[in-house]
Design goal:
Blueprint lengths: L3 H6 L20 H10 L2 H5 L2 H14 L4 E3 L6 H6 L3 E4 L3 E4 L15 H18 L5 E7 L1 H10 L7 H9 L1 H24 L4 E6 L7 H22 L5 E5 L6 H8 L3 E3 L6 H7 L6 E5 L1 H6 L2 H13 L5 E5 L9 H11 L4
Parallel strand pairs: 1-4, 4-5, 5-6, 6-7, 7-8, 8-9
Antiparallel strand pairs: 2-3
The chain binds coproporphyrinogen III.
Length: about 350
């Protein structure tokens, strides 16, 4: 069956770019909030295959989207490795910060058994999904996961992880090695459970100089791409190094990802110059433009569509949709991309 989004990742430009929305299952949808309230905690929702499959499918019932993305979170990996992870309502994730001594307590052997419910979610979504829709799996990339494991929460500058990496390089390398292996095993399991393509969320690829970017972003992601393809030949992989700026060309060449997710700060023309001809791109509308809606949003959608008209393009936001986004604006976005107004 023809899957326009998967074909675009494989390098075939579609007359109408396929579309999905980062964080498309989430709090801007009342039906999500309803299931979320029933599930108990956020992690309980992630580990409940029936409810997680339900919220995965919700956005596709409302909008003409070309893909479902597994409902889970990047922080299920540290949770599965045995680090304490909690989600505080209104505050975001809280982890017990890891120390060099604590690395020995992580349990890589526990990873896949712990994540079996997430794999079951994929199987359930796969069997419910229309055949022309692409199923996207994902994980967080090692550097991004490490920033949360070390600081114990999100931060604006990732200083704790950057200092850890520079002052305790051996312990840091050990942590990255654990996360690379965990990511490979988890993504291989997702592809075997039904994911058509997987996305590597490197949400904190910003704030790194070029030397650290090569060491902490490019090299671990390169190893994951190679490791996954060693087990699943031809596995399709989208890289999303948010904030990679002038490093995107090198990131693509070195990692071998099939397609590149662009954040909204990336100028369309600049990306066109840095990236090889024919490389599929995904993005990159600013989520705040979607929240604001109206003519400014439609103008920017048109600019992005025109800017990437010469290569395979998956339309998306340049980062996750904001919880306050009006649903009518999402309808307007979908209609504009699909050429219906
Ligand atoms: O895209 C999707 O619809 C699939 C589900 C998904 C979630 N998180 C659900 C979620 C995906 C792909 C993620 C990825 C994720 N999680 C990232 C990378 C992408 C990005 O946005 O940069 C990161 C950094 C996280 C970590 C995380 N999870 C944070 C910082 C937070 C709190 C901030 C917030 O928005 O509340 C979460 C919680 C989270 N993950 C929610 C959802 C729907 C909201 C929690 C809730 O419903 O109570």
């Amino acid at each position: 069956m023809h899957k326009p989004l998967l074909e675009t990742v494989a390098g075939l430009r579609q007359a109408t770019p396929p579309l999905w929305i980062m964080r498309q299952a989430g709090r801007y949808l009342p039906e999500y909030r309803e299931v979320r309230a029933r599930a108990g905690s956020f992690l309980e929702l992630c580990y409940n295959p029936e409810l997680a499959a339900e919220v995965t499918l919700q956005p596709l019932r409302r909008f003409d989207l070309d893909a479902a993305i597994l409902f889970s979170d990047i922080l299920v990996i540290p949770d599965a490795l045995g680090q304490t992870v909690r989600f505080e309502v209104g505050e975001g994730p809280r982890l017990e910060p890891i120390s060099p001594e604590g690395l020995g307590k992580l349990r890589p052997d526990n990873l896949i058994p712990h994540l079996m419910p997430v794999l079951e979610t994929l199987q359930r979504v796969k069997s419910a999904l229309a055949p022309e829709k692409t199923l996207i799996g994902f994980c967080g990339s090692p550097w991004t996961i490490a920033t949360y494991m070390i600081a114990g929460q999100g931060s604006t500058d990732q200083a704790a992880a950057r200092i850890f990496a520079l002052t305790q390089p051996d312990a840091f390398k050990h942590l990255i090695d654990i996360l690379v292996e965990a990511s490979i095993a988890y993504l291989v399991a997702q592809l075997r459970a039904g994911a058509d393509v997987v996305q590597l969320f490197e949400s904190w690829a910003l704030n790194l100089d070029e030397v650290s970017f090569r060491a902490q972003v490019i090299e671990p992601n390169r190893r994951i791409v190679a490791g996954v393809r060693a087990e699943v030949p031809g596995a399709r992989i989208i890289g999303f190094p948010r904030g990679a700026a002038g490093m995107i060309g090198e990131y693509v060449a070195a990692t071998g990802v099939d397609a590149l997710g662009l954040d909204y700060a990336m100028p369309v023309g600049f990306a066109g110059k840095l990236l090889p001809q024919g490389l599929p791109v995904q993005g990159n509308l600013d989520p705040i433009r979607l929240l604001a809606g109206g003519a400014q949003m439609e103008r920017r959608i048109d600019e992005i569509l025109e800017g990437f008209a010469n290569r395979p393009h998956i339309f998306n936001l340049g980062h996750g949709i904001l919880p306050e986004t009006p649903i009518a604006h999402v309808d307007q976005l979908v209609a504009r991309v699909k050429g219906r107004n």
